[in-house]
Amino acid sequence: LTDTPALYVDGVKVPATYDPATGTLTPTTPLGDGAHSITYTLTDPSGNESAPSAPLSMTVDTTAPGAPTAPTSYNDNVGAVQSPTSTAATTDDTTPGINIGKNLTDTPALYVDGVKVPATYDPATGTLTPTTPLGAGAHTLTYTLTDSTGNESPQSGPLSMTVDTTAPGAPTAPTSYNDNVGAVQSPTSTAATTDDTTPGVNIGAGLTDTPALYVDGVKVPATYDPATGTLTPTTPLGDGAHSITYTLTDPSGNESAPSAPLSMTVDTTAPGAPTAPTSYNDNVGAVQSPTSTA
C-alpha cells in the first residue's frame, strides 16, 4: 500500500503493525476474549484519512475445553478374544480404539505414553484408534479435545493396557480321554475305539489359558472342566476315525498352535444278534454228550 493504514478495534484506533510483504495489519496489543469488530483506514501522504472500511467480525476465544472424561474401555477387534467395550488389561490388538463418546463437536487427539500420535476418530462408534500399531508392552492412552478456535484441553485420565502379541507354545498332546458311556468306561481311557460320542480329552486341571477343541482339524464347540481337566465336545462325533487336538488362548487373545493329536475311532454299531444255539454240553448221569440235542 502507498497510503498508511490504521487499525480500529470496536471503533477505537489501536497500535498496529503493517507488513507490506504479507499485506497484514496486526494489533500490537492482544485483543481480549469476546466478539470484536475490526476496521481500518488509509491516510494519504497529505494526512487525509479515509472513512473506515466495512467491518470484519470475529470472536477471540482463548479458553480451552476442560479435561475430558477418562476412557474406561476400548474396541478390541483382533484375535480369538474380541469385544467392542473391552476392559481387559491385556490385548493382542495393536490398534485398540478407545471409547471416548459418539458425535463429539470438539476434535479429539490421541496420546500414547504422553506422546501425541496419529489417530482416527469414528463419530458413529465413538472410538479413537491409533493409525500406527502400538509396540508390545505396557501403555497408557489419553486424549484431548480441541475446540473450533484451536484451544486444546488438558489430557484425560489414562486408560492402561498391555499389548501382547506372543502366543503360548503348542500344548502337550493328550494321551487319554474320559469314556463314560456304555459297558466299558474309564476316566483315563486309552482305547483305540469307543462308543462314547462325546469323549472328554484329558488336557490338565486348572488351566489359566482358554482351551479350544479341534476335531479332524475343525474347531468345534466344547466344554472345559477345570476340576477334572477334560475338554468335551458338545456335539456328538460321528462314527469313524477321528483326530482330536486342542489349542490354548491367552488372556490377550493369542492362540497357540494345536497340540499333537489323540486318535480314536467312534463305533456305536452293536454286533448283530448271534446265531441261536442248537446243542448243549450234558456231562451228568448215564447219558452224556458235549453236543446234546436231547
How is the secondary structure organized here?
Elements: E1 4-9, E2 12-14, E3 16-19, E4 24-27, E5 34-43, E6 56-60, E7 74-76, E8 83-86, E9 90-91, E10 97-99, E11 107-112, E12 115-117, E13 119-122, E14 127-130, E15 137-146, E16 159-163, E17 177-179, E18 186-189, E19 193-194, E20 200-202, E21 210-215, E22 218-220, E23 222-225, E24 230-233, E25 240-249, E26 262-266, E27 280-282, E28 289-292
Parallel strand pairs: 9-16, 19-26
Antiparallel strand pairs: 1-2, 1-5, 3-4, 5-6, 7-8, 7-10, 10-14, 11-12, 11-15, 13-14, 15-16, 17-18, 17-20, 20-24, 21-22, 21-25, 23-24, 25-26, 27-28
Give me a quick take on this structure.
With 294 residues, this protein is mainly β. Helix content is 0%, strand content 43%. It contains no helices and 28 strands.
Q: Assign an overall shape.
A: rod-shaped
Which consecutive residue ranges, at least 5 long each, have pLDDT under 50?
none
SSE pattern: EEEEEEEEEEEEEEEEEEEEEEEEEEEE
Strands ordered across the widest β-sheet: 8-7-10-14-13
* Count of DSSP strands: 28
Largest sheet: 5 strands, antiparallel
Oligomer: single chain
C-alpha-based Rg, rounded = 40 Å
Overall mean pLDDT:
95
DSSP helical segment count: 0
- Helix/strand structural class: mainly beta
Helix content: under 10%
Strand content: 35-45%
* First-to-last CA distance: 140 Å
